[in-house]
Design a protein that fits this description.
six-stranded mixed sheet; 3-phytase; His_Pase_clade-2; 2 domains; 10 strands; single chain; alpha+beta; globular; 548 residues; acid phosphatase activity; Rossmann fold; His_PPase_superfam; two-stranded antiparallel ribbon; 17 helices; binds 2-acetamido-2-deoxy-beta-D-glucopyranose; 34% helix
Length: 548
């Protein structure tokens, strides 16, 4: 009795405060796009000689030893990344008492700010096992936090809102947003499109500095030329690479210390192992989008009812509600904070995370009929780099042979190889590498359980912003004397049970010969033409290849 009176009073208060949008939001139309264009003059006439970069008087500049933290850190003390980059303000979930109770930012799938993934093999860390040392790395590294594309959910929702506000007067039906939604009355769309955000730049340069600190000692084995790194021409890929290199070598020096190859990323017929969908595209590719939609129609029903109860003359659809979760993540990694995040409960954030698992699983990994074919080219290049055998490149794939057969653009004499790419390509590569512990089918009516004993695809762990797959080459002495490889994804060592010839090993080690042999078999078995150009049925699969 008392409670309902109290609620009624609150409701009255709220409704007297909430004015129609056209009266309250005088300066802006809710949902409209806003952006800053700061009018810095490109030539202000100031005398450049006052600001010359190349000046003397730098003081002493001796360099120290190349750091080798991967070798020198004490066992058990690996520097895992546990928090998002400092400028991210962690939001509180709607039903959490504090931000510490539940870390919303770690549940954003491909929009998760970079952090280390939880360990899978309990005895293994990225530090080499006893009596082993790391003598080379092959890395594929994702770009940092970016804006959504202009056609993605967030912009779609903003346009819908803007349109509704503009037409409300004609319809004589004033839109009102009450209670938790009041902020929407003067919310505008503030995001750019597709390029890195400032936080995304930090993720890359932090990662560059971390790789230098862990693996810098490997540089002294690259003697014949400056180390060569690879990325694509796309703005966020290019900028991710140069931010990383600035972190790795220093902003002032990186161009004196490294070469950067940019493989063309463009619609058309450009072969590119770092963006294979340019030449391997079929309608059947995107199975995950359907799975995601089925799932959010399930887990967001309560949120839909709740939000619509706080809106007058505006109908949220289930697609809109999912878009609001996307907006939370994108605004946070672009602007540092988002009011949308606290609209959702802990369970709704767990649901959102799983939606990203379904998307990546079905679009880019074991659920996609194209995944293995798309990852093939990079795996061939990996085999070439590990074995030195040029025959690794022969099979037809997305390789640009002009670049791949040239030591100036794909060298095999480097102890450090780092390529920059997209989340979907990292997912393709893990599928081609046959990491079958990630292949567990995912239902769309409940969250598939996950534990070190029951592994599956978890996007937040595998392809967050700045994610990296490191294939370590190791040399071991003593009982297990010999050459080895293993795969470390965002600081978690993975079992290699899907690579034929690799034995169970608590450190994730596989002997070099078995690893190389396993890769050869993997490459042989991919039907590139069948998957990319064949008559592929549009359906969900289980092994990353078409099922005829
Ligand atoms: C291969 O790369 C070169 C150098 O960027 C480019 O000129 C050529 O068009 C590319 N070829 C294909 C098929 O992508
Ligand atoms: C590009 O890829 C296609 C398809 O695999 C292949 O036939 C062609 O030779 C490649 N071109 C170059 C320059 O690598
Ligand atoms: C992938 O792994 C599965 C077992 O997990 C195995 O049966 C299959 O032969 C592997 N495929 C290749 C190409 O190695």
């Amino acid at each position: 009795m008392k409670t309902s009176v109290l609620l009624a009073v609150i409701a009255t208060l709220a409704s007297t405060q909430a004015k129609p949008l056209n009266e309250r939001a005088t300066a802006v139309v809710a949902g409209s796009a806003t952006s800053d264009s700061i009018p810095w003059p490109t030539d202000d006439g100031y005398d450049e000689s006052l600001y010359r970069l190349d000046q003397g008087h730098r003081g002493p500049t001796p360099t120290g030893i190349e750091p080798a933290a991967i070798q020198t850190a004490p066992a058990g003390y690996y520097p895992y990344v546990k928090e998002p980059s400092a400028p991210v303000v962690k939001p509180r979930a709607r039903d959490a008492k504090s931000v510490d109770e539940f870390d919303v930012t770690s549940h954003w799938g491909v929009l998760t700010p970079y952090r280390s993934a939880p360990a899978i093999l309990k005895d293994a860390s990225p530090l080499p096992p006893p009596q082993c040392s790391v003598n080379g790395i092959n890395v594929v590294h994702r770009h940092g936090a970016r804006y959504p594309t202009a056609s993605a959910n967030p912009a779609k929702f903003a346009s819908k809102l803007e349109e509704a506000v503009k037409t409300q007067q004609d319809a004589n039906a004033a839109i009102q947003f009450n209670d938790e939604l009041e902020f929407l009355a003067d919310w505008t769309y503030k995001l750019g499109s597709a390029i890195l955000t400032p936080i995304g730049r930090t993720e890359e340069s932090d990662s560059g500095s971390a790789f230098r600190t862990k693996y810098g000692y490997l540089l002294k084995d690259i003697k014949a030329h400056k180390p060569i790194f690879r990325t694509t021409t796309q703005d966020r890929m290019f900028n991710s690479a140069i931010e990383f290199l600035a972190g790795f070598f220093g902003v002032e020096n990186w161009q004196d210390r490294a070469h950067l190859v940019q493989i063309i990323e463009e619609e058309g017929h450009f072969n590119n192992t770092l963006n294979p969908s340019q030449t391997c595209e079929q309608e059947a590719a995107d199975q995950g989008d359907k799975l995601k939609e089925e799932w959010y129609n399930h887990y967001l029903q309560d949120a839909l009812t709740r939000l619509n109860a706080q809106a007058v003359n505006f109908d949220f659809t289930i697609d809109d509600v999912y878009a609001l979760q996307d907006i939370c993540a994108y605004e946070t990694v672009a602007l540092g904070y988002s009011e949308f995040c606290s609209l959702f409960t802990k369970d709704e954030w767990r649901g959102y995370e799983y939606a990203a698992d379904l998307t990546n699983y079905g679009d880019d990994s074991f659920g996609s009929p194209l995944a293995r074919a798309r990852g093939l080219g990079w795996v061939q290049e990996l085999l070439y780099r590990l074995s030195g055998q040029v025959s690794a490149l022969e099979k037809q794939s997305t390789i640009n042979t002009t670049l791949a057969y040239d030591q100036h653009t794909l060298p095999i004499d480097q102890t450090i190889n780092i390529d920059f790419s997209h989340d979907v390509v990292l997912a393709n590569i893990l599928t081609t590498l046959n990491l079958t512990h990630l292949a567990t089918p995912l239902p769309t009516d409940a969250i598939q359980s996950y534990s070190p004993e029951h592994l599956r695809w978890v996007t937040s762990n595998l392809t967050p912003f700045g994610s990296n797959i490191v294939i370590q080459s190791l040399e071991c002495a003593g009982e297990q004397s010999g050459q080895y490889n293993r795969i470390v994804i965002n600081d978690a060592v993975h079992p290699l049970t899907g690579i034929n010839g690799c034995e169970d090993n608590k450190y994730g080690l596989c002997s070099r010969d078995a690893f190389v042999g396993g890769l050869q078999q993997i490459i042989q078995e991919v039907d590139f033409n069948g998957a990319c150009y064949g008559d592929v049925e549009n359906k969900l699969v289980a092994h990353g290849v078409p099922e005829w």
